Amino acid sequence: MNSMNNRVPDLGYLNLANGPAILYQLTPAQLVEAAIKRNEGVLSDSGALAIDTGKFTGRSPKDRFIVDDHVTHDNVWWGSINFKFDGAKFNALYNKMAKYLAGKEIFVRDSCACANEKYHIDIRVITETAYQNLFVHHLFIRPEVVNPESRPEWTIIAAPGFMADPEKDGTRQPNFSIISFSKKTILIGGTGYTGEIKKAIFSVLNFVLPHDKQVLSMHCSANTGSKGDTAIFFGLSGTGKTTLSADPDRGLIGDDEHGWSDYTIFNFEGGCYAKCSGLTAEKEPQIFSAIKYGALLENVNFFPGTRRVNFNNIDKTENTRVAYPLSNVSNAVIPSIGASPKNIFFLTADAFGILPPISKLTPEQAMYHFISGYTAKIAGTETGITEPKATFSACFGEAFLPLHPVEYAKLLGKKIKDHQVNVWLVNTGWTGGAYGTGQRMKLAYTRAMITAAMNGVLDHVHYHQHPMFNMMIPLTCPNVPDEVLDPKNTWANAENYEDNANKLATAFVNNFEKYAAYSTAEIINAGPNTVLAV
Ligand SMILES: Nc1ncnc2c1ncn2[C@@H]1O[C@H](COP(=O)(O)OP(=O)(O)O)[C@@H](O)[C@H]1O
Ligand SMILES: C=C(OP(=O)(O)O)C(=O)O
């Protein structure tokens, strides 16, 4: 197949020029057609392209490496996620990937990130498959004009069929995502999970924006009310960022990644990547109706003998997804920029049923919870998780942070104080007991609590303090039964609740030890007591 565009970018600078048929800047319709022809996927009855990513259906917990040999970036946080990979190994792996792609049909797309033009970065993404290119079309920002001759600032090469050989290539496993800040190049191999492409650029922006531009980068969704009142929703994967930001009464700014400059917040992306396990038109109408022609469904199943998606069938993975451009959402704000937030929600899916469904945090408690980044991982995005596990992921996104978490926390703390933002902790997880005994908080209740916080109703109700975690719990909230608001009331046995609350509080305190040296006494003291306050 020849390129359907007249001008084809010169990829000489990448050593990829020898042979590959370059399919440049194809339209979604052309990409859908190409994907079907190449047997990458089929059309669902709503016209979405349904593909399988194969073995890897989510992010792999140990896949990220950063190359930092020409050190201008001396403060990268080398932890278990950011694993130093040397420049010579990067070059060797790069050449191996180039060889692998030589002679193959490859898809090239120029796009960009950051809705605020002041922070725009141009990105060229080269993919082995048509569907990954469609993903990039949907998720990144689509520039009005592209110039194939210009060399973009960042380049991503993503080849799912290319596996590294850990022994020879120095990776930890055959699939990998490697970011070279010095070469401004990202190599992704051995995985067809499209989320890896967007999270790679997120990781880049998590360095560049705070470090070079004093802009806070955030793993959060955002929406705005009719009076321009912005709300942002931080949370780890599966805690509800996408679901709760999709609100028919508010404009959607974005579902996952944003920056906060002096007076505005802006989306990094141009689309959404929603989980679709259990999706129904009734519960999540905005997401459901965004699945139209050209949307990209990942790892879903059809009802037998049909092309109708069975969203309840999660045999391939719990992490079924759909990617679509923001323009598929009727009330999207484009360009996706909003005022500084009035309310911040920290979403946690507490599978232990301990944290209140909504509570108000002091600025110090907000810092404590932001640095802690607690959730309970349930089977989902991350490969290998099959049962709930308490997880602390700093800033609700540790896997994507090249800087020390306290750097982001400092920026957030200043902004919360400067803009007098209300901060709420929302447990979208379990109530009435832990996973297995209790049940997931009803989405309708969570939505009602968030609405009440945003429209100021919760400023005029009475509160009581959690005896162990010390946050303030409202006694009443419209459209939510009073007994749901206090988690202890929802457990069959109050003593059992207290024992388990103590265990969770202890896990918080133990986790925070590694941050104590970087925090103030006020922040440390804003953590839970490990014995019940009387
Ligand atoms: N009370 C609740 N609040 C938010 N999401 C809920 C709730 N109960 C169930 N869910 C489900 O949990 C999932 C949250 O996923 P999503 O919004 O995509 O998370 P994220 O964007 O943070 O990764 C959705 O499938 C949603 O339907
Ligand atoms: C896409 C991902 O994140 P989220 O679930 O937050 O959208 C991911 O972690 O792979």
Automatic annotation (TrEMBL):
Q: Which PANTHER family match?
A: PHOSPHOENOLPYRUVATE CARBOXYKINASE (ATP), PHOSPHOENOLPYRUVATE CARBOXYKINASE ATP
Which organism's genome codes for this protein? Mucilaginibacter terrigena
Question: What residues bind Mn(2+), as annotated?
Answer: 199, 219, 256
InterPro entries per the UniProt record, alphabetical: PEP_carboxykinase_ATP, PEP_carboxykinase_C, PEP_carboxykinase_N
Cellular component terms per the entry's GO annotation:
cytosol
- Entry's EC annotation: 4.1.1.49
Localisation per UniProt entry:
Cytoplasm
Known Pfam families for this protein? PEPCK_ATP
Family label? Belongs to the phosphoenolpyruvate carboxykinase (ATP) family.
Which pathway does this chain act in? Carbohydrate biosynthesis; gluconeogenesis
This protein's UniProt keywords: ATP-binding, Cytoplasm, Decarboxylase, Gluconeogenesis, Kinase, Lyase, Manganese, Metal-binding, Nucleotide-binding, Pyruvate, Transferase
Reactions catalysed: oxaloacetate + ATP = phosphoenolpyruvate + ADP + CO2
- State what protein this is by name: Phosphoenolpyruvate carboxykinase (ATP)
Residues annotated as binding substrate are 59, 193, 199, 321
Q: Which domain of life is it from?
A: Bacteria
* Keyword ATP-binding recorded: yes
Q: What does this protein do?
A: Involved in the gluconeogenesis. Catalyzes the conversion of oxaloacetate (OAA) to phosphoenolpyruvate (PEP) through direct phosphoryl transfer between the nucleoside triphosphate and OAA.
* Cofactor requirement: Mn(2+)
The free-text note explaining how the cofactor binds reads: Binds 1 Mn(2+) ion per subunit.
An example Gene Ontology molecular-function term: metal ion binding
